[in-house]
Each structure stands twice: as structure tokens, then as C-alpha cells.
Amino acid sequence: MNKILSVFTVLAVSLLSFGNSFADDTKLNGAGASFPYPVYSAWAYDYSKISGVKLNYQSIGSGGGIRQIINRTVDFGASDAPLKPDELEKDNLLQFPAVIGGVVIVVNIPGIKAGELRLDSNVLSKVYLGEISYWDDGKIKQLNPGKALLHKKITVVHRSDGSGTTAIFTDYLSAVSSDWKEKVGAGTSVKWTVGIGGKGNEGVANYVKRVGHSIGYVEFAYAKENNLSYTLLKNSSGNFVEPGFESFEDAARSANFDPKKDFYLWLNNAPGKNAWPIAGATFILLAKEKKESNINVVKFYDWAFKKGDQTAKRLIYIPLPLSLKNKIRGYWKTNRVY
């Protein structure tokens, strides 16, 4: 994936010959969520080889993606935080999900490897509220008997920008902690009580990688890419589960996306014995009046739905089930962009 990410740091992919169904001078500009950046980059690279379409995607966070599509400065915006139907109506936007992934908790504790530390929602919310400040706190030790946890202060890392990953993470904390819901709440930007901010999933991953005894939250691909130690997390069934394709897929099985609601849905704290508790879809936003560019954007995602599943799985994202892809195609037809 290093290769993929480096190739698409700029995302100016080379143009090649293409088939009759595509316009040879098509260029698409998108911006928003950093959560799906690795898979969008990989899809764009493969798509360029058969279509010649040049995709410029700026990984600026979901808040930036929403602002840019509202201001009509891009062909599509991308957000991990779905917009409600009335918000879409107000700004004359369309919305559909593109892929599903998981937000994982990463730590930098000497001697602790990936999958070795157990956390639950109570501990996680108290750490991010600043009520648990040291790694040898009794509540953490109780979840990890026999684990050598030193009296080291926890450095909390969060996002500094408007972030869909933050929206998913804080929606989860609001669902499992009344204290968190009352004191902080959920959203793409929240008033953090403790910690330092990193820009994008990349920024949080870099902070955790560099700062000892830290904790952060990132999309799983960034944990893998940076060789960060992710934790186990107790789910709504009471089981400590490991993040990965199977546990993300188990969470996704509960999803019931409705095109009549413009697919507005959160996936956090899903039922399921092995379901990863912090999961979410990432969404594409289109300006209704931009019919021509919308058709080109939809062509790209239609191709990704047909040809991109293996790439998504390789990067530990969950492809949308066929039934949902067909619902989305019906939504596109209804809105005359397919």
C-alpha cells in the first residue's frame, strides 16, 4: 500500500487510451474524507488505465469536502458523516455510500503489540474526557490482567480538522456514554476536553507513531500503513473483538440503507457477536444541477462497484453488497445521472 499511497499523493494519474464509453478529456475533481483516500486512490489508478480519466482527489477531511461541494468548487464531495435529507435538500445535493470501513483505536506503548491491549467503551470515553490520565489506571489494568502497564501519562490524539472519522468516533462515544454525549457530543468538529490535534487520518497516525504512550483513532488502513498497534475493543455483544475485514463485515451486515432517505445511516455499535463497534460508510455528495459532471462521477463509482471489490478488500474496506449497489443505481436513475 506504500506504493499505492505514494503514487497518489498528488493523484495526478497519467492518461492512457480508453474505450468508447468514456470521454478522453474527462477530469474529475473531488475532495473530502481522508478515511477512504487509500481505496479511492487505488480505484482511480486502475480506472485511469481503462478510461483515461484523470481523478484529482484532495484528502482534506469530510468537513472540507462538504464545504467544497456546497460552494460548487469540486465535482464531488466526500464525507464519512452522512448528511440528513433536509440538509441535502437545503443545498440541492445528492448522496450515496461508496464503501464501508472501520475506525480503530491505535496506541504507542512500548512492549504492547497490535491486538494485545483490551479497551471498552467506558475506558475509551473516560480517556478522551481526560478522566483517565495514566496507562496504569485501575480500569485499564482490570481489562488487561497480567499486562505490564507503567505509570505513564496518556497523550490523547484527535483530529484538528472537520472530520468524518471524528464524526463516526464521536457518534460511537455518544451512543455508549451518556457523559460523553452530555459533555462533548458528536460531530465532524467537537470541543475536545484534552489532547492534541492532527490533520487528517494521516496526521493522527503520524502523531501516534511519534509520541510515546499516546492513543488515537484512525481508519484501519492508516493503522496498517503506519504499523501502529491497534487495540481490541469490547462490542455490544460483550465480546472483545479485533479490527479486520471479518469484524467490519459483521457490522456492515446490520446496515439497512434507504434511498428514500438518501442513504442516511450510521453503523456504530452494530449488533453481532463479532461486529467491530466503530464502523461506518463513507459517502459521495453531488450537486444536483451539475448533470454532466455527475454522470462522469457516477461512471467512476459504477466501475468501482463492478471492478473494485478485490482492491477494497485488499485494503481492508468492505465493498457494498450487490443489493445496495443496485439500490444506488436506482437512485442515480431516479435523479437522471445514470
Question: How would you sum up this structure, described in words?
Answer:
A hairpin with a 5-residue loop joins strand 10 and strand 11 (240-241). Helices cover 39% and strands 19% of the residues. It has helices at residues 2-7, 37-51, 62-70, 85-90, 121-129, 138-143, 164-176, 178-183, 200-210, 220-225, 245-252, 291-307, 309-314, 322-334, and strands at 27-32, 54-59, 76-79, 93-108, 118-119, 155-159, 196-198, 214-219, 229-230, 232-234, 240-241, 279-287. The chain starts with a helix and ends with a helix. The chain is built from 14 helices and 12 strands. The protein has 338 residues and is of the alpha/beta class. The strands form 2 sheets. Strands 1, 2, 3, 4, 6, 7, 8, 9 and 12 form a 9-stranded mixed β-sheet that branches.
